[in-house]
Amino acid sequence: MTAQPIPYGDVDHEAALKYAVQLIDHRWAQVVEGRIVLVSPMWDHERVVARIRRQLDARIDELGCVSGSGNLDLPGSPNWYLADIAVVPDDLALGAAALTPDQTLLVVEVTSESNGDTDRVTKRKRYAQYGAPLHLLVDRQARECTLFSEPHDLGYAAVDGPHPFGAAIRLPEPFGLVLDTAAL
Fold first, then answer.
1. Which of 18, 19, 67, 148 has the fewest CB atoms within 10 Å of its CB?
2. What residues make up the domain containing 72?
3. Could you tell me if residue 101 is inside a domain?
4. 8 Å CB contact between 51 and 65
5. How many domains does the chain fold into?
6. How distant is the alpha carbon of residue 89 from its chain centre?
7. Cα–Cα separations (whole angstroms), residue 95 to 70, 71, 91, 98, 132
8. Domain at 65, CATH number
9. Does 41 have pLDDT greater than 70?
10. 13 Cβ neighbours under 8 A, 6+ residues apart
11. Rounded distance, CA 131 to CA 101, Å?
């Protein structure tokens, strides 16, 4: 007797993949264009993230927001991201397993040698398509920062940069502050 295949019927493969990546024990993971990518931030990467976060903290509190590396879902796509920093309204973060890029005020990605092109190309494109209003790319390999704004389906309409490390980067409202990149 031959075993018969079990029909999967109406399985939502996107939801199954995004659910599975959340169950990877004690590891940060994201799904990038359908591939599960384990994330293991190195200290030099985390140093840059911390220096940016410190400059944002007071304003984030004033805005009634929270920042972190929480899950960002891109519904209808095989993507589930962990941004290096995502700034979101506190009331949206309360009890949320994941948010969408359009629910953020700012998304920051800091490149690593192992996944720099993912941050530079893939995530930038997807953040724009999913409406992240501000996206700051900190490219450690090129030693420059670029601020993207005015998202639409084809990318960001406004690009401020790239600026070399050491240049001041002005974040528009609701932040209304200048980031010092000299120490990055």
1. 19
2. 41-180
3. yes
4. no
5. 1
6. 15
7. 12, 12, 9, 9, 21
8. 3.90.1570.10
9. yes
10. none
11. 6
Residue whose tokens read 């490390």: 165
Question: Is 172 a member of any domain?
Answer: yes
Q: Token pair of 8, please? A: 């999967």
* pLDDT tens digits, 107-132: 999 998 888 899 999 999 999 999 99
- Model pTM? 0.87
Residue with tokens 């007797």: 1
Contact indicator for 140, 110 with CB cutoff of 8 Å = yes
Question: What is the full DSSP assignment across 61-112?
Answer: HHTTEEEE--EEEETTTTEEEE-SEEEEEHHHHTT-S-B-GGG-SEEEEE--
**Max CA-CA distance within the chain?**
72
Model confidence at 11: pLDDT above 60: no
Q: Is residue 106 part of a domain?
A: yes
| Interval 77-116: pLDDT, tens | 988 899 999 999 999 999 888 899 999 999 999 998 888 8
State how far the Cα of 69 lies from the Cα of 108, in Å rounded to an integer: 10
Percent of the chain scoring above 90 in pLDDT: 66
24 lies in some domain: no
